[in-house]
Amino acid sequence: MAVHHIGACRFLVTGQSDDCRCDHEAQRYVRLAKWSLAIFVIELLAGYAANSVALMSDALHVIMDGMENIVSVVISRMARGHSNENALRKRGGKISAALLCAAGVWIVYEGFERILTPHEVAWYMFVVAAIGLAGNIYQRKINNEAPDEHRNTQYFWQDIHLWSDILASIAVIIGGFVMMVAGKWYWIDGVLSVGIGSLIVFFTIARLLGFKAHSHNHGDGHSCSHGHDHDHH
Question: What is the pTM of this model?
Answer without folding.
Answer: 0.75
